[in-house]
Amino acid sequence: QVCAQLCRRPCYCPWVPPRCPRGSPLVLDGCGCCKICARRLGEPCDFLHVCDQSQGLVCDYSSASAGTGGTCNFEDDEEGCEVNGRLYRDGEVFQPSCKIQCHCLDGGFNCIPLCQEDVRLPTPDCPYPRRVEIPGKCCPEWICEAQDQHLLRDARTVSPLLRPPCQEWGTAWSACSATCGLGFATRVSNQNRYCRLETQRRLCVLRPCPAPPAAFPAVS
Fold it and tell me: Residues in domain VWFC (predicted)?
């Protein structure tokens, strides 16, 4: 009887279908008459305003009082995740972008990066490494910049109008390379004029080396 009251024949629908938010497809209402925006996880629903079945959602009346509507929930009461308007089931692995991979778990999600976050230090064969975006590739890659290009870029960097703030970073100094006498200690730091990671050295002396033993005099 309620269905007969709600579902009128013939159908009277607006000429222009509604504009749905991202992740909510156009579907037929509960009467199979007019197109409406499917309700998403956690949104109110009733006989007319149906949930998005493509995401495994049904109208859950378990916590609703008599005469009121329900709430869109997973059919098996499974917890899920909603990311950028799209729903994922509990345990599902997905990639919101090519750079990260996520795992839906217990109503939340954990993500790990798919691009390496390595640091390339200057070397003799590549004194000016720089990380750039490559057209057609997801992850940025390291390239070896020519010296003239590097000098031009450094000139822009040190300009008082264009110089960005530099957050200092560096490792601890290593142990001295020599157990006695003059040696070297090294570290990786960006505390320099260009705020660029580089290997730095400094002299160190742990203790003086003992004098060599005197040679025995020759026996005549």
Answer: 79-145
